[in-house]
Amino acid sequence: MDVGFILTNAIVLACIYGTLAIGLSITWSSVGLINLGYGFIFALSGYGAWLASQYISTNGVVVLTAGVLTGALGGLLVCALAFIPIHDKPNFTVRGLIATLAISLIGTQALLYVFGPRSKNLPDIFGFWKINLAGIVLTSDKIGNVVVSIVVVTAVLLWMRSSRRGLEIRAMMMNPHAASIVGIGVRKTGFYVMAITGGLAGLAAVLLSQTYYISPFGGLAPMIKGVSIALCGGLGSVRGAVIAAIILGLNEALTARLLGGQYVLITQFILIILILLVRPRGIAGILDRAREA
Amino acid sequence: MTGHIWRNPLYFWGVEGAEKEVPSIPHKSPQDVWDETTTSKAPMLPVGRLRYYYKWPGHGGLTWPRFRYWGTRRRALNIRSVYNPKTMRLEKTIVDKRPIWWVLGLLAFMLAPLVMPTSFQNTLLTAGATFSIYAAINLCWMLIIGTAGIYSLASYAVVGAAAFGTSWLSINLGLPWWALPLVGAGIGLVFGMIIAVPAIRLDGFYYALLTIGLNELCRVYTLQSKQFGSSTGGLYGADTYIPQGWDQYDQSLLAYYACFGVMLAGLALYRFIDGRRLGRILKMAPEKREAFAEATGVDFRRARIWVFVISSIGLGFIGGFYAAHYRGVSFSIFSFDTVLLGLAMLVIGGIGRAEGAVVGTAIVILLDKVLLSTGPLRLILIGLIMLGVVLFLKGGLFGIKAQFRAWRDKKKSERRSMRAEKGGEMLPEEATETKDKDLLYWRRYDKMQREFLKTVISPELIEEHRKKPLGQHSEPLERLLLYFRRAPQNDKYAIVAVEPFKAYRIVALSGQRGVAPRIVEDKIYTSTDEAYHGVFLRRVQDLLES
C-alpha cells in the first residue's frame, strides 16, 4: 500500500471513469438526454467483447474493437428507443430519463437471462509485462488503459473539433433549435452522438474488464462514478469532466490511504455535494440555466 | 333543358328588336343554394359529444344543506345540484366520482381475505401485505416526485436506512416492535434533512443523479460493513409485532391488516399534503417556474424542505414498520433494481396522483409475484410496460382518459378545419382580425350568389346574350348581368374604341383614379355588340373559375 501504487490506480480509474463521464456529458449537452441506460451499454459491450474473444480471436485489437462496436450498437438502440420517439414531445427530459431507466432494467435483465449470473472475464489484451519507473511498478494493463483511453478520447474530441459531423454535434450542443433551423438533422445527429458515446462506454467496459469482471449489473457502479464525475465537472463540459475526474480520483486515492476503502464513496459524495452546493452547475458549468428543450 | 322558353313581355308592346320567345332554361330557385349552405354538414353522432353524467333526482328543499367534514368546508362528494330549466326539476350530478371508487376499492381490499381460495391464501396474503407497504412508500415518494416535482431517487434509501437502523437497534439494544416505526421516523427525519439540503440548490437531473449516487452509497456502505450483516445478506432478528404463538393463517391475516393500516396512513398523509396549502404551493412552483412563484410571494424553498422532511418522516416510519414486519431487512432494498421497480410503479400508474401510485404498485407487485417462476423475464416484462407507458402515455394509466380526450378534441378540430369551406368566405383567423364584420356576411352572401349563378349559365343564355347584348333579357340572364354590373370598379372589364364603329378592344379598369386601364387581350372586335359579348364571355369565364 504505497503512495505510488494508489496514485497509479487512481490515475487509471480516473481515465476510465473520465471516458464514461465525457460520454454522458456529450449525450446530455447535445441531445438533451440523461442516458441512465449507460450502465447497460457498458455491460452489453463487455459481453460483446467477451463473445468476440470466445468465438473470433483473443487478439487485443479484435476484443477492443468488438467492445467498442457493441457499445455503439447499444447506443443506437437507446437512441432509437428513448430519443427518436419522444424527443419532440412534451416533458422530453423526464420521459427520456425514465425511458433510459426502463431500457436499463430491460437490458440488464435480458443479459442476466441470456448469459446467466456468472461473471465472465476477458483475456489480457495488453499482454503481460511491467516496467519499473523510479520505484513505481507499472503493469501492462495500467499503461495500456491510460494510453488507450487518452488516445481514444483525444481522437474523439479532435474529430468533434475538425470534422463536419463534429461541427454538427457541437452546433447541437450550443443551441439545438438554431442547429435544426440551419439544417442539422436532430435525429441524424442524435444517432451519431449516441453511437459515439456508446462506443466510449464500450471502450471503458473493455478497459475496466482488465481489472474487474463482466456481469449483467457490473455497469451500474461505473455509470454512477461516471455520472458523479460528469455532475461534478458540469454536464456538457469536457474540460470540467477531466478536472473532476482528477479531483475525484485523488480523493479516492487519499481516502483509501488515510481512512480506509469503505469510506471512499462517503467522502466522494460529501465532496460532490460540497462542490455542487458551491457551484450548482458543476466546476466548469457556467451556464445560469440548465439546457432546455 | 330544351324546350323551355321565355316569353318576352316587351314584345306585345312593340318594342324594337324584341323577340316573342327566347329559348331558355328551367327556373332555378336561389333558395336551394341558401338552404344548401346553411344546413350543417357535421355528422351528429349520438355519443361522444358531451360528457355523460347520470342525473340523480333531488329531494325537495334539500338542495343546499349537505354533509361536511367537521371543521372543514369539504364535502364527502362534490355534488352539483341545479334546476333543469326545461323540466323544472332538481338534478344532482356527482362531479367527481373518485371518492366512490376509492371507498369501493379499499373495501374490496379489506374484504378480500374472505374470498381468497385456500390453496393460495398464504401467497395472496403475503402479496397483499407487500403491496400495502410498497404502496405506502410510493405514496410518500409521490409527494416528492409528483407534488413537488423533484426527481429524488433516494426514497428507498431513506426507507432502507431507517429499516437498517431500527433493525440494528432492535437486535443490539432490544428495542420493542412498537418503538421501531417511531425511531425509524426519527432516522427518516435526519435523512430527509440531509437529502433536502442539496435540493435547495440543485435542480432536475443534477438532483436525480445525485440521489442515485446516494442510494448506491448506502448499498455499498451496508454491504461492506460487518455490523449491518455483510455476511448474511441483511440484518435479521428484529422484534416483530406478529405474535409468534399464533398459527400461520392468523399471523398472515394480522400482517395483512397491519400493512393495510400503514397504507391508509400513507393515503391520509398524501391527502393532507397534496390537497392542502403545502401541496398547492409546491404545485405552483414546479421546476423552471420558481422565479414566477417567488415573484408572487411563494417561499418555494421552505415548502420543498418541508415536503422532504414530512415525506422522509413518513418513509422512515414505514422503514421502521418494514423492519418490524419482516423481522429485519436485506440489502436488496438499496439495489438499483428496487429503485427502478418503484419508479416503474409510479410511472405506470401516473405521476402526480395517489391512485396512480397505488394501482401502479398493485400492477407491478402482481406481475412480480405471479410470474415469480419466470425469473428475469418478469422484470423484462415490467420494464417493457414501463417503456411503453413512457413512450406512449403522457400521465400513465390514469392519464389515459385525459389524453384520449385531448386526442379526440384534436381530431375533432382537424375535421372541423377540413370541413370549413374557403373561396370567398373568410377563414376564422382572418375573420377575427377584420374590423368590418359586415364584410364577413357580405362575402358569405356573395359566395352563395356565385354558387347559384354558376348553375344558371348555359348555352341558351350565352346564345341569347350573343344575339342581343343590350335590352330586356330572360330572367336568369338578367340576374347574371345584374351581378356582373354590380362588381366593383377594380379590375372591371370595359371596352375602348380603337377606331369608332370599326375596332373595339377589351380593357380592365384599374379602379384607381389616374391609373390607366390595362389591356386584357389583343383581339379586335368589329362592333360594340360583339365587344359587349366578349366582355360577357370573359366575365362568365371568371365566374366559373372562381
From TrEMBL, chain A:
UniProt keyword list: Amino-acid transport, Cell membrane, Membrane, Transmembrane, Transmembrane helix, Transport
UniProt cross-references to CDD domains, sorted A to Z: TM_PBP1_LivH_like
One Gene Ontology MF term: transmembrane transporter activity
Pfam family, one: BPD_transp_2
Entry's Gene Ontology BP terms: amino acid transport
GO CC annotation: plasma membrane
Subcellular location: Cell membrane
Membrane topology, record value: Multi-pass membrane protein
Domain of life: Bacteria
InterPro entries associated with the record: ABC_transp_permease (IPR001851), BCAA_transport_permease (IPR052157)
Transmembrane segments: 6-26, 33-56, 62-84, 96-116, 143-160, 192-214, 226-248, 260-278
Family: Belongs to the binding-protein-dependent transport system permease family. LivHM subfamily.
Name listed for the protein in its UniProt record: Branched-chain amino acid ABC transporter permease
TrEMBL record, chain B:
Keyword Acetylation applies: no
Protein's recorded name: Branched-chain amino acid transport system permease protein
Gene Ontology cellular component terms for the protein in this record: plasma membrane
Bilayer-crossing regions: 99-118, 124-146, 153-171, 177-197, 254-273, 305-323, 329-349, 356-373, 379-400
Endpoints of the signal sequence: none
Keywords noted in UniProt: Cell membrane, Membrane, Transmembrane, Transmembrane helix
Annotated membrane topology: Multi-pass membrane protein
GO MF: branched-chain amino acid transmembrane transporter activity
Subcellular location: Cell membrane
Record-annotated N,N-dimethylformamidase alpha subunit domain positions: 441-544
Species this protein is from: Methylopila capsulata
